[in-house]
Structures are given as structure tokens and as C-alpha cells.
Design goal:
heterodimer; A: 113 residues; mainly beta; 6-stranded mixed β-sheet; 5-stranded antiparallel β-sheet; 11 strands; B: 116 residues; 7-stranded mixed β-sheet; 4-stranded antiparallel β-sheet
């Protein structure tokens, strides 16, 4: 099935460093969502974006909804060990795409203390 | 508010059997979506229910079905299980904002299904 192009696939960083990841699509989305998933658990919502150009922060996390509506990025500042996990972007199209999120492949984040 | 709950959390079945998974959405949420997560295919949309009606369906065979009850709780069923059905099955509930299409999905912990 269709997936968003999420990059990088994995990141190994030192505690305190900033992290940036992004998602691109050939299709337009009306909503972009960013999730974090820990092993054996469901994805947890981090940030929701609803408007092209929107920039939203949640603590050390900042995300933006691209102007073209085909991309989004997530930044994490001053990373800490508990940031370890898999980060997913997800897009929701309009029209009759009821309840259907399209996901990126995920970015595996490892933080070395 | 309590989050999305899914039961059971873990399940082991054999090929050919069928399985039913349950999802209770966040109180007040009327939309429930189901997803299959595997290492190879990632997160794939199965179907969505709203007010007991299936409004959208992904590209899965007819062995995968679901339903929603009047209290918004949802079940999904997989018949004639195959080895490839081993996956984490996730449900998510949402309640579109009254200001428009500000839909946000909240996920449950998932049901881990292993087919032997």
C-alpha cells in the first residue's frame, strides 16, 4: 500500500543533540500527525498539524506542515535518553478517506547518554 | 479520560482458525479505525467505522472484517488465519472537531497476534 517517504530510517545521536526528521508524499494531505512508538506498545500522538504552513511545538518537539501540503518535518531539541523509540509521520487526506491514516516507514532513534 | 483499550493484548492461534479482537474507544469518540503493523509492511489501514457503519476499507482480503456497536466499541475478525496474519493489530479512535476536519487519531496498545 501507499506509504509516505520518511527519512532518515535511523539515527544514532548523543544526548543533548538536536534531531530532525521529515516526511514527503506525492499526494496532498489535510492533516499531518507525528507519533512515537515504544516496543510492544501503540503509537502515542506527539503533534497534530491541520493547516499548510502551520508550525507547532510541544515541549522540545517542533513540527511543521509544509506549504505544498505534501511534506512535514519534526525536530527534537536537546535529546534525552527517553526520546529513544520509533517516530512515525502520518497523513490524512480529505474527501472520502474516512479514518485512513497513511504512515511513513518510521525513524528509529537511538540516544547515547 | 481513559484511553483506547484493546483486548486481548496477546493471542496465539493456529493456521485455519479464526480470531476476534476488541477495541473500546475513548469515551465520546465515534470513529474507530483498525490497522495492521508488520515489520515488512509497516502500518497498513484495514477499515474505519463510524456510527456502526463501515465508511472506508483498505486493501485486505475479505477474511478481514469488522463491526461497530451502538456504544462505539468495535471488533475485528480474521477468518481462516494464515501465517502472514501474524502482526500487531492496532485500533485508533477519533472525534472530528466541530470546527471542521480536525481529526486526530489516538491509538490503543494493540493486540499481538501470532499464527503458528
Amino acid at each position: 500500500g501507499q506509504q509516505l517517504n520518511q527519512s532518515p530510517q535511523s539515527m544514532f545521536i548523543q544526548e543533548g543533540e538536536d534531531v530532525s526528521m521529515n516526511c514527503t508524499s506525492s499526494s496532498i494531505f489535510n492533516t499531518w500527525l507525528w507519533y512515537k512508538q515504544d516496543p510492544g506498545e501503540g503509537p502515542v500522538l506527539l503533534i497534530a498539524l491541520y493547516k499548510a504552513g502551520e508550525l507547532t511545538s510541544n515541549g522540545r518537539l517542533t513540527a511543521q506542515f509544509g506549504i505544498t501540503r505534501k511534506d512535514s518535518f519534526l525536530n527534537i531539541s536537546a535529546s534525552i535518553p527517553s526520546d529513544v523509540g520509533i517516530y512515525f509521520c502520518a497523513g490524512l487526506a480529505g474527501g472520502t478517506s474516512y479514518g485512513k491514516l497513511t504512515f511513513g516507514q518510521g525513524t528509529i532513534l537511538t540516544v547515547h547518554p | 479520560k481513559a484511553g483506547v483499550t484493546q483486548t486481548p493484548r496477546y493471542l496465539i492461534k493456529t493456521r485455519g482458525q479464526q480470531v476476534t479482537l476488541s477495541c473500546s474507544p475513548i469515551s465520546g469518540h465515534r470513529s474507530v479505525s483498525w490497522y495492521q503493523q508488520t515489520p515488512g509492511q509497516g502500518l497498513q489501514f484495514l477499515f474505519e467505522y463510524f456510527s456502526e457503519t463501515q465508511r472506508n476499507k483498505g486493501n485486505f482480503p475479505g477474511r478481514f472484517s469488522g463491526r461497530q456497536f451502538s456504544n462505539s466499541r468495535s471488533e475485528m475478525n480474521v477468518s481462516t488465519l494464515e501465517l502472514g496474519d501474524s502482526a500487531l493489530y492496532l485500533c485508533a479512535s477519533s472525534s472530528p472537531s466541530d470546527r471542521g476536519h480536525r481529526e486526530t487519531q489516538y491509538f490503543g496498545p494493540g493486540t499481538r497476534l501470532l499464527v503458528l
